[in-house]
Design brief:
The complex is a heterodimer of chains A (about 220) and B (about 475). With about 220 residues, chain A is of the alpha/beta class. Chain A has helices at about 10-15, 25-40, 50-60, 60-65, 85-90, 105-115, 130-160, 165-175, 180-185, 190-205, 210-220, and strands spanning about 1-5, 20-25, 45, 70-75, 100, 120-125. In chain A, helix 8 crosses helix 10, helix 8 crosses helix 11 (about 210-220) and helix 9 packs across helix 10 (about 190-205). The two termini of chain A are about 40 Å apart. In chain A, strands 1-3-2-4-5-6 form a 6-stranded mixed sheet, with helices on both faces. Chain A has 11 helices and 6 strands. Chain A is elongated and about 75 Å long. Chain B contains 12 helices and 7 strands. Chain B has helices at about 5-25, 35-55, 60-85, 90-115, 115-145, 150-170, 190-280, 285-315, 325-345, 360-380, 410-415, 430-440, and strands spanning about 320-325, 345-350, 355-360, 385-395, 395-405, 445-450, 455-465. The chains are: A alpha/beta (about 220), B alpha+beta (about 475). The interface of A and B includes residues 7, 128 and 131 of A.
Chain lengths: ~220, ~475
């Protein structure tokens, strides 16, 4: 592994801007592309094989949560595993956009890459402008995916604070049921319903039934 | 009308003597065996007839034995001429033996049995049989070669044969006196026989000359056709070789396209890094030099690849050099490494120091490239394929071996592997190994396809430079 950096900014700062995992079997290509990305202020790590890159990604999976956006830039044709295999092994991992590149891609490779959700497919040789644009796009996507994931995690965490009864009341409220209807349905007093509802709103930090509905909708999806 | 049988025989005999001589003289030059036999046959028949007419003046052995020996040998020779023409001449000993037996029977009938009737019948029968044989041979030639002349020969000989049989039947049944009676119109059959013999002599000799002329012309036409065919085949072979090379080039271009993209990517990204870094003022001089060094290195790499493609396209020079097979093998491995990588095949190169061979390096690298590509293609669908290239000395030959871990040659494929246009690939021309073999043979070597424990092994063996080749090199035809 090689970390590409430029004097002036430390690694932590770079990681907040964006961390790029670069994979190519050609060390000179690695140097060139890594240098360009580092110059742009990204934290770029270069790997010569897919196995190495995967190892690094799995090792710091936990640490990533606190870091900035991450994306992968990998060559498709390499002696052992290529970019498509890397993509397969990362399938389903949230917030990890992948950009593939190749100098001899077949249409089949490109189709496979996009079907598996690649952000883009760059044809070698790659112009610096295009490279930086694409990486910025991929990181932005990574960022928004990460934010979505973060907010979802927050929602779930807040919902977990409710008691079972409070959650039940909140769900019925969000479906638009009136307090009286809820009381009848659950066989409890109207006063008790009002109490549960107030506590739930407070615990979730919400003001209106509309916000409650939105939150429950989001966390259910 | 009065006819002297002896005079008739004399005239006919002289004609039979002169016409073949005339034919023989007219043809001139290098006379085919068929003509010699035919003329000899005519001459013998002529001699037979002349001696027959002079019998009273000859001693008994000449008048009977010698005369009839000629009478048998003549018609026999006619048949032999046609056999020679058809390319199936009979050995002389058998012919002489045949004659001896026939003559012995004749002598027994003459001296022991002392029956003129049986003797004459015997002579007529033998002559008719020989003529019938001639008819059959001529007819066969006429049919197989569509030769009108041969049909004419069979027609006239057939007529003569028929008359001999008529005379034989007449004598045998006692309708015709066996001994020739002079004049008195009683020898009507002899008249017919003499006239038809004269016609037969003239027509068959003319027809034979025509047959030989037809033959000569056909031979010339065939020779020209062969020449044309050979030239055409050579042209086609060179075109096909070129085509094969071009189609190989197409596949190669795809693989090399990727290979050249790799240094180009390194050049572009490093150059842009340098440009941007310098502009931003964040690249120290030492690092800038390093980046520039990478650009230079990769530019060389790219131009090396281009040089390799070019040397592959360059038309074959006919000259020969002292070639180090080790270098050829190393260069070829370079050329196929990309394809091997794409197919997930690992390449092994095992080379030892080998003496040089006398050959053309470009041609040999094509042979090797072809063998390697065959190996790679054979391993299509094989898991963890391995292509091994070995160069070593074996006696006073250098052996270059390409081994793969594919399915190997099938029995049928092995027996025909070097045959042009035999292929097991759906898109192959089936010329790769055939052309490779041609090239190997041109340098006194050979190509040996075979099977190993796993997969196929193809060996290219070439004599060490300066050693006498086991298989003398095939001389290259001079270009015109």
């Amino acid at each position: 592994m090689k970390q590409f950096s430029q004097p002036g900014t430390d690694w932590e700062t770079r990681c907040r801007k964006g961390r790029i995992v670069l994979v190519d079997d050609d060390p000179h290509v690695l140097e060139g592309l890594g240098g360009l990305l580092a110059l742009e202020g990204y934290a770029c790590e270069g790997y010569l094989t897919v196995a190495e890159a995967l190892g690094a990604l799995h090792a710091d999976a936990a640490a990533q949560k606190k870091q900035g956006p991450v994306c992968i830039l990998s060559d498709v044709r390499m002696p052992e595993e290529g970019g498509l295999e890397l993509q397969q092994q990362l399938a389903g991992r949230l917030g990890m956009p992948i950009v593939l590149m190749s100098g001899a891609a077949t249409p089949g490779d490109v189709v496979r890459a996009f079907r598996a959700g690649a952000v883009d497919f760059l044809l070698k040789p790659i112009d610096a402008e295009l490279l930086l644009d694409t990486m910025a796009r991929a990181l932005a996507l990574g960022h928004s995916l990460k934010q979505d994931a973060d907010s979802l995690a927050g929602d779930l965490e807040r919902l977990s604070r409710l008691t079972r009864r409070e959650l039940e009341v909140a769900q019925r409220v969000s479906r638009g049921e009136l307090n009286r209807e809820i009381a009848d349905a659950l066989g409890i007093a109207l006063r008790t319903v009002k109490h549960h509802r107030a506590v739930a709103m407070e615990k979730l930090g919400l003001d209106s039934a509309v916000d409650l509905a939105r939150l429950l909708d989001r966390s259910a999806g | 009308m009065q006819l002297d049988a002896n005079t008739a025989n004399l005239i006919t005999g002289l004609l039979f003597v002169t016409v073949p001589i005339a034919a023989w003289v007219v043809v001139g030059g290098k006379r085919p065996r068929a003509l010699n036999e035919w003329c000899l046959g005519g001459l013998l028949i002529g001699a037979h007839l002349v001696m027959l007419s002079l019998r009273p003046a000859l001693p008994s052995w000449a008048g009977y034995e010698l005369t009839n020996l000629f009478g048998f040998a003549g018609p026999q020779a006619l048949g032999e001429a046609l056999l020679a023409h058809a390319g199936r001449p009979r050995p002389l000993r058998r012919r002489l033996g045949e004659l001896a037996v026939l003559l012995a029977v004749h002598t027994v009938l003459l001296r022991v049995v002392e029956s003129p009737l049986l003797r004459i019948c015997w002579v007529l029968l033998v002559q008719a049989a020989f003529l019938a044989r001639t008819v059959a041979f001529a007819w066969r030639i006429g049919q197989s070669e569509r030769s009108r002349s041969a049909v004419i020969i069979s027609f006239f000989c057939g007529g003569l044969c028929l008359l001999l049989l008529v005379r034989f039947t007449g004598i045998a049944l006692g309708l015709i006196p066996p001994v020739v009676v002079l004049g008195r119109g009683s020898a009507w059959d002899l008249v017919a026989l003499s006239i038809s013999a004269i016609l037969c002599c003239i027509f068959t000799n003319a027809a034979l000359i025509a047959l030989l002329l037809e033959d000569a012309r056909r031979y010339e036409v065939q020779a020209v056709a062969r020449q044309v065919e050979m030239v055409e085949r050579q042209r086609l072979a060179s075109q096909v070789a070129h085509l094969e090379r071009r189609s190989g080039l197409g596949q190669m271009a795809g693989a090399l396209g990727h290979e050249i993209n790799q240094p180009l990517t390194a050049i572009l990204s490093n150059a842009q890094l340098l440009e941007r870094g310098l502009r931003a003022g964040t690249v120290p001089a030492a690092e800038a030099a390093e980046i520039a060094g990478r650009v230079v290195h990769n530019t060389r790499r790219a131009s090396h690849i281009v040089e390799r493609i070019r040397s592959y396209i360059r038309p074959t020079r006919s000259g020969s050099d002292s070639v180090d097979l080790r270098r050829v093998a190393e260069d070829t491995i370079d050329l196929v490494s990309e394809e091997a990588r794409r197919r997930g095949v690992s390449l092994d190169l095992e080379v030892t120091q080998v003496p040089p061979v006398q050959a053309n390096a470009v041609e040999l690298s094509q042979v090797l490239l072809n063998l390697c590509r065959n190996g790679l293609q054979a391993m299509e669908g094989t898991v963890a394929g391995r292509l091994r290239l070995v160069v070593e000395t074996s006696g006073n030959e250098v052996e270059l071996r390409v081994e793969d871990t594919g399915p190997g040659f099938s029995h049928e494929a092995l027996s025909q592997a070097l045959t042009p246009f035999f292929t097991t690939k759906s898109d192959g021309l089936g010329l790769g190994l055939a052309i490779s073999n041609d090239i190997a043979q041109r340098w006194g070597g050979r190509l040996l396809p075979g099977n190993g424990e796993v997969g196929a092994i193809v060996r290219l063996r070439l004599p060490v430079q300066g050693s006498s080749p086991l298989h003398p090199p095939i001389e290259e035809e001079e270009e015109t």
